[in-house]
Predict the 3D structure of the following.
Amino acid sequence: MALETCAAAGGHADGLMLYINTPARYRRAVERFRRAAREAGRDADRLPVSLLIPTFIHEDLATARRAAREFLVHYAGRPHYAKTFAASGYAAAMERVAAAYRAGDLATAMAALDDALLDEVVLLGSPSRIREGIERFARAGVEWITLGPQAVATDSLARQAERMIALLAPR
């Protein structure tokens, strides 16, 4: 979501739901949202903010990364997300993705999405690794984390949702 949109939401919306953000981008968006809410005379601290994080559960990290790349490459190929990722420190990767898209080379576009970018915007791997990622986002200030199950290897989205509930739900 564009920072300008976050500001508009602060003045009018009942809350803010962000998607595919680095922790630093999340903090900037929330700051913009809350500042606009205060300027509009609203109680900014009472307005909820959440982050929906695409989640790829698989014991084999390489398999989870492959699924995450297949998912994320389509976002990275869109101007808004490419601009957002570039502003979050991944400009070179976004240039490689754009060049690969222009050449019609999806495999190269996917390869341009390095592990650091994946680790900043999605949760992937084993349940314990995903729990560590949830803690990392929480330490970075994310107030309300929503996990978004994604298909991985032979697991459908529905199967991933079932696994998420069984393996990651609070006990």
Summary: The radius of gyration is 17 Å. The chain has a mean pLDDT of 93. The chain has one domain: 3-168. Residues 120 and 158 are 24 Å apart (CA to CA).
